[in-house]
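To close the section, here is one more complete example, presented without commentary so you can practise reading it yourself. The ligand is 5CA.
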Amino acid sequence: MRRTQLFMPTLKENPSEAQIVSHRLMLRAGMIRQSTAGIYSWLPTGYRVLQKIIEIIREEQNATGAQELLMPTIQSADLWRKSKRYDDYGKEMLRITDRHGRDMLYGPTNEELITDIVANELNSFRELPKNLYHIQWKFRDEVRPRFGVMRGREFLMKDNYSFDLNYEGAKHSYNKMFVSYLRTFSRMGLKAIPMAADTGPIGGDLSHEFIVLADTGESEVFCDQELINMKPPGKDIDFTLNLQSIVDDWTQYYAATDEKHNHDNCPIPKDELVTARGIEVGHIFYFGSKYSDSLGAKIQNSDGELVSIEMGSYGIGVSRLVGAIIESSHDDKGIIWPESVAPWIVGLINLNADDMSCNEICESFYELATRNGVDILYDDRVDRAGAKFADMDLIGLPYQIIVGPKGLKEGFVELKDRADSKVERHNVDEMSSWILSKTRN
Ligand code: 5CA
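Output:
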C-alpha cells in the first residue's frame, strides 16, 4: 500500500476524549473513529489489525475441531423468554420492535439461538460432540461505555458453544478451549492468565476469565506469582488427547478476579500474591443443561433415553483485543505491533521523494515486497523526514526500511526495529533478501 493512496487520518495531538493510551493511539493512528458513544467505525488500518486477529482466532479454533458458522445479529425475543433471560438481561439489552409489533433484540450473546438450532437438528448421541463458533458483532447497552474499543456498546466477539452427551465430554470440550485460548493469546504476543471467575448472566458453576495484566485494566485481579512466569503450550498440542494435565498445571496456582477473591480466605501467603489490574480478553463457561433444558435440546443416549445436551460457551473479545495488545505494547512514540497482528510488517520510508535514486530504490523494494506477499506500507509522500518518522513510529509497524540520499551515496539503506529502535545498515541486495524473508507463509 502506498501512503499517498491510503486512508489513514493520523493525528499529531492527543485527542482529549481518550483517557487511556490504547484509545489515544487508535485515534491518533487513524485506526478508528467514534460513530456515537461506544460505537466505532474501523478505518482501513484498524480493520487490517482486526482481520489479523480474527485469522489467528479462526486458525486456533479450527485446530480444536470447532466449526465456524454465522448467526444473525438480530434475534427474536421469543427464545429469550423461553430461557427466562429476556427480563433478566435488563437495560443492557437493545430491544427493537419490527413493523408487525414483534419484539426483537440485537444479540448480546447467542446461547439461546444456537441451542435452538441444535435442538431442531441433532437427535442422536452419535452426532455429538459438536463445537460451533462464529465471529459476530454484539450489542450491550453498557452503562458506561469507555476506553474506546475496550468497553464498547457494539463490539466484535468470537463465541462458541459446545454440545456433549455427558459431563465428561463437556469437561473435555471446556479443557480444549482452555488450552486453545492460552495458545491463541500467546500468538498475539499477549500473556493471558486464566482466573477463576464469576459467571454473571451467562450462568453455570465452572468458569475462567483470561486476563491480560495492564495498569489500565478494568478488573482487579489476584494471582500467584508462579502463573506470571508460566509458558503457554506450543503448536504440538493434540486436542484429541486428555488435556486435563495441562489445565491442572495452570489451575494448581491461585488466580481469581475480584468477584471471586476472598481476602480473608486466600490460600496463599501475602508475599506470593500479586495484586494487579487486568483486561478480560476471554471468558469460558460450563453450564451443563441450563439452556438445553429450557429450550428443549434433548438427544437420545445409547440406552435410547432422551437426555438434555451438556453445554458450555466460550467468548473472546475480538475488538477489545486490539486495545489490549496496544496497552501491553507501546512506548511514548506510539504503538509497537507484534508481527502476528501488525497491519503491515514493514514501513518503507522514502526520505526524499524528489530524489531520483531514492525513488528508484524504494520502488524496487516496494515492487519486490508486493510481488512476494510481504505486507508493506510505502511512505511515498513529499513531506519532511521528521513527520514521516513520527508517523511511522506512531502506527507501530515492526520494521522500518529507511532510504535516504546520503546513505545511498555511501551504498546503504537502514533497517530499524520498532521495538528496540536498533538500526542496521544494509546494502540494497542484503535489504532485498531481508524483504523476501518476510514473505507471508
Ligand atoms: N456467551 C458468553 C461466552 S461466548 C459471553 O458472552 N461471555 S462474556 O460476556 O464474557 O463476553 C465474552 C468476551 O467479550 C469478554 O471476555 C470480553 O473480552 C468481551 N466483551 C464483553 N463485553 C464487552 C464490551 N462491552 N466491549 C468489548 N468487549 C466486550
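Once you have examined the C-alpha cells, check your reading against these statements. Residues 167-187 form the longest helix (21 residues). The first strand starts at residue 32 and ends at 36.
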